[in-house]
Write a structure and sequence with these properties.
heterodimer; A: about 450 residues; Alpha-Beta Plaits; 3 domains; eight-stranded antiparallel sheet; five-stranded antiparallel sheet; 15 helices; 18 strands; about 35% helix; about 20% strand; B: Uridine Diphospho-n-acetylenolpyruvylglucosamine Reductase, domain 3; 16 helices
């Protein structure tokens, strides 16, 4: 264990003292109750490298910190000495509108980037649920995604290259700035979703998309999740950006949805693209709703769309108090109805009312379980175990994205590892031989 | 040539009819679509992952390298067994194991030919998007190894965007699934490491691919320009307008001349460039997009536009593009296909540079390429039989690659590093970058086992790698594609 004052002083002398926060502020950078000894906010990539050189020399454990919006993700850190806060690396390095690419520093918030890109009529097609403060680095480390993945895919489809600082402080580049590139191993995709356990992502180059010229949202209420699946199967050629399935509890939490799906499910569809294609899609959705026996359709007012999609994102956002449980399951899209209904059944058995929100076509099923502040560990544990079993029967995976600390200490939030785990362990050993990058937080407590 | 004991051991694993070891039979497997050469000691044609595993274990015991090969259409020497050893030819593992139309995925074996998959999917209203120009011959396993692209990658992405999971045999002979049928598997993304690893990390034995619904309508446009510059402007204007066509290809004057003689595509002899543009989707919006593209092309100076709505008409418009590589054989006895990517906005500048290099060395250079994503394919025409020409052409190629790198681009967009571009890797990656990649090989413990001598440059000070001496593609080879 490194002496607190030593690490603090070393960082202060290695960097400008402005780059190190006063000790009393360290508590706000706690991860799962573990408070770092020192918080540093480098302003250049070279300074990040300096921090890592020092950390590796002193064998100090580092957790990169962006907006802190996804910090609930991951297992309890085995050790945590330095919070490496990237919020001051917040610049657009390069944006060439005609190339539809942009290179951005990791600490930039997604909101700031979108504002910048919107001036050129473009955007980065990632819409994770974490809200305004989420940073580019945070999105990449967590491989966070949202409803738009239906049309645009996830970070691994949009990143062209990145710069990262390795555990020993060496700065490396992976990929490039062009949309087609097969030179060498794809380290960018490896680092995406590695939760700061292999390197510190400091910069990324993205493929951008033009802002759709039109967008309309429609809500189709259906008696069951199975009906929703049958409905969506007929929409293959529509110009849809997002296909979200909400259970009745989730609908009730979403004021703008009004009376939709009182006891069934609501399918919230965003059509985006050229105005004519959007209108056509909406018309088709109307036609399909008329044909489906028990469906009812509501078109969302233009001005209400933005707030509605924000409200939907908020449904699965981990609460700051961590009182509740947020689980992300991935199954085959066709199994989403089965899993949704099993989740509802489990809720009834435990006397809980989960919000179930799915990216239907991706097979991603979020369930958010509000729990009282004084909840013990047993019921969350039973819950996680039951859900894991249900998902395992469907050959899917389940990540507990947020939960009370007491539960985190009992489970691996990522689930069980598989036959490829020894390979993952060897990769971790190669990139972080000392075990100083977010130690213990990744799958299998790597 | 293999020793008898090795042959017997291999035969015991895969059967007598699945081992090739006679020197005259092995010759077939010593090259791919480059003219790199390397003779394996024995060729094995496995039919199951278990056989692959057994062969890898045997190779490990004997300290032999293993090189996987699909159809041998690769353009970077990826399937050349530079260090001899055992070659695994995957073409007998070509079954479609499952089509899950509802979830839009299929499980296939690596020896399946790319186009055969889409053909089998037609009746489900689905298709597999990546379409390398060699798709009638190339295998999906080869596509995975090289992270293959194709004309339609502009809108849909390359192989890595369409593969959900891989079953692989690792260097110790163990079998593992990387990724899965379902999205966002927890853990490191090992699948993305193997895709594009050019056979150096693992042998792929099953692939789960993502499928797309067939578009309702497709329209192909052909725009003829007097100036290359105008065509480049049209490309930028189309993308700038927020239109992302399914394909956006360019042919230059040299290519058109050769194509005209060969397939009579109807290109005017005095035109400088042709754009081939394809839009797909819902009928009305496709028509709207096609109309917008037509207007843009005319505004930027297109002298003639042709539009194809029916499959036959579209096929006719594509004929010149698809026949381009074959037609180039008319220019000279040999040609050298290059592959580099630059930012789209740098295309005009880099193309000018490419022609200057041609003039400097006295080679005609034909450009036929994926303009929409900045992926250039200059083809240098030359006569291999003239002494010194092959060396000169390699020099010219290196200069063109340098132009791509200097413009902020890269040394390969879709063909792979293989043997020919190993030394160029240092132009885009530092020692630290390369060392980080090398760690992946260490983690997979595959450095000595799988396809040695690829991707990585020789360590500093070891001299020019011998492999670059003969990296020249012969023309008129039926299996050379871009």
């Amino acid at each position: 264990m490194v002496k607190e004052s030593l690490l603090h002083n070393l960082l202060e002398s290695a960097l400008d003292s402005q780059r190190v926060l006063p000790r009393e502020e360290a508590a706000s950078y706690a991860v799962d109750g573990v408070i770092p000894q020192v918080v540093t906010l480098p302003v250049t990539v070279e300074e990040v490298a300096e921090v890592m050189r020092l950390a590796s020399r002193e064998d100090a454990a580092v957790i990169p910190w962006g907006g802190g919006t996804a910090i609930s993700l991951g297992n309890v850190p085995r050790r945590y000495d330095i919070a490496l806060c990237l919020s001051r690396l917040n610049q657009v390095v390069e944006h060439e509108p005609a190339d539809l690419t942009a290179t951005v520093q990791a600490g930039m918030t997604l909101a700031d980037l979108q504002r910048h890109l919107a001036e050129s009529g473009q955007f980065l097609a990632l819409d994770p649920p974490m809200g305004q403060d989420v940073t580019i680095g945070g999105i990449l480390a967590a491989n966070a995604s949202g409803p738009s993945r239906h049309a645009y895919g996830t970070a691994r489809d949009l990143v062209l290259g990145m710069r990262a600082v390795q555990a020993d402080g060496r700065i490396i580049k992976a990929g490039g700035r062009v949309v087609k590139n097969v030179a060498g191993y794809d380290l960018s995709r490896l680092f995406i979703g590695s939760l700061g356990s292999l390197s510190i992502i400091v910069e990324a180059c993205f493929r951008l998309a033009p802002l759709p010229r039109a967008e309309r949202t429609a809500v189709v209420s259906l008696p069951s999740a199975q009906e929703a699946w049958r409905f969506i199967a007929q929409t293959a050629n529509l110009s849809l950006r997002a296909v979200e399935l909400l259970n009745a509890a989730a609908v009730r939490q979403t004021a703008t949805l009004g009376d939709a799906a009182k006891d069934g499910y609501a399918l919230v569809l965003a059509a985006a693209g050229e105005p004519a294609a959007v209108e056509h899609s909406l018309k088709e959705i109307g036609e399909l709703s008329r044909r489906a026996a028990a469906a009812s359709l509501a078109k969302v007012d233009d001005r209400a769309q933005g707030p509605l999609w924000q409200a939907i994102a908020g449904l699965t956002r981990p609460s700051p108090s961590d009182a509740g449980l947020v689980c992300k399951a991935a199954v085959l899209p066709s199994q989403v109805p089965t899993l949704s209904e099993q989740i509802e059944t489990t809720g009834r058995e435990l006397g809980l009312e989960p919000l179930v929100v799915s990216h239907l076509t991706a097979g991603i099923v979020y369930s958010a379980w509000p729990l009282p502040q004084d909840e013990g560990v047993q019921r969350p544990l039973d819950l996680a175990t039951t859900l894991r079993r249900a998902v395992a029967r469907l050959a899917g995976s389940l990540v507990v994205e947020a939960c009370p600390l007491a539960l985190k200490e009992r489970i691996d939030v990522w689930g069980d590892s598989a036959a490829d785990f020894p390979l993952m362990r060897r990769i971790k050993e190669q990139f972080d031989p000392q075990g100083i990058l977010s130690p213990g937080r990744f799958l299998g407590r790597l | 040539m293999a020793d008898r004991k090795l042959v017997r051991e291999l035969q015991a694993i895969v059967g007598r009819d699945a081992v090739i070891h006679a020197p005259e039979d092995l010759l077939v497997y010593e090259y791919d679509a480059t003219i790199e050469r390397g003779l394996p000691e024995a060729v094995v044609l496995p039919t199951t992952a278990e056989q692959v595993s057994q062969v890898v274990k045997l190779a490990r015991r004997r300290g032999l390298p293993v090189t996987a090969r699909g159809a041998g259409t690769g353009l970077s020497g990826g399937a050349i067994p530079t260090a001899g050893g055992i070659m695994l030819v995957m073409t007998r593992m070509k079954r479609i194991l499952e089509i899950d139309a509802e979830n839009r995925l299929a499980i296939v074996e690596p020896g399946l030919v790319n186009l055969d998959l889409s053909a089998a999917l037609g009746r489900y209203g689905l298709y597999y998007a990546p379409d390398p120009s060699s798709q009638k011959a190339c295998t999906l396993g080869g596509n995975v190894a090289e992270n293959a692209g194709g004309p339609h990658c502009l809108a849909y992405g390359v192989t890595t965007n369409h593969v959900l999971a891989l079953e692989v045999v690792l260097a110790d002979g163990q079998t593992a699934w990387l990724g899965g049928r379902t999205a966002d598997r927890p853990g490191y993304d090992l699948r993305s490491l193997v895709i594009g690893s050019e056979g150096t990390l693992a042998i792929v034995t099953k692939i789960i691919v993502r499928l797309l619904p067939l578009p309702e309508a497709t329209i192909t446009l052909l725009a003829i320009f007097n100036e290359m510059e105008q065509a480049s402007q049209a490309v930028s204007a189309i993308i700038g307008k927020g239109i992302l066509p399914a394909a956006l290809e360019m042919l230059d004057k040299v290519t058109m001349g050769a194509v005209e003689e060969a397939v009579h595509a109807g290109y005017p002899p005095d035109a400088d460039a042709v754009l081939l543009i394809e839009v797909e989707g819902w009928r009305d919006s496709v028509e709207e997009e096609a109309e917008a593209i037509r207007a843009i092309c005319e505004n930027t100076g297109a002298r003639e536009m042709r539009i194809g709505f029916t499959p036959e008409d579209r096929e006719a418009l594509w004929a010149g593009r698809k026949g381009a590589l074959g037609a180039l054989g008319r220019l000279a006895p040999s040609y050298y296909i290059l592959d580099g990517t630059v930012p789209r906005t740098k295309l005009p500048q880099v193309l000018r540079g490419v022609y200057q290099v041609g003039e400097k060395y006295g080679f005609p250079i034909a450009n036929v390429f994926h303009a929409g994503d900045g992926n250039l394919h200059p083809n240098i025409a030359f006569d291999e039989s003239q002494p010194g020409q092959a060396e000169k052409v390699l020099e010219a190629g290196a200069e063109i690659m340098r132009l791509c790198v200097d413009a902020g681009g890269t040394i390969t967009g879709e063909h792979g590093v293989g043997m020919e571009k190993r030394d160029f890797m240092r132009w885009i990656f530092s020692d630290d970058d390369l060392e980080a990649m090398k760690r992946i090989q260490v983690a997979f413990a595959s450095e000595q086992r799988f396809n040695p001598g690829k991707i990585f440059p020789d360590p500093v000070g070891s001299g020019e790698s011998a492999s670059r001496q003969r990296t020249v593609t012969r023309s008129l080879r039926p299996d050379a594609y871009v």
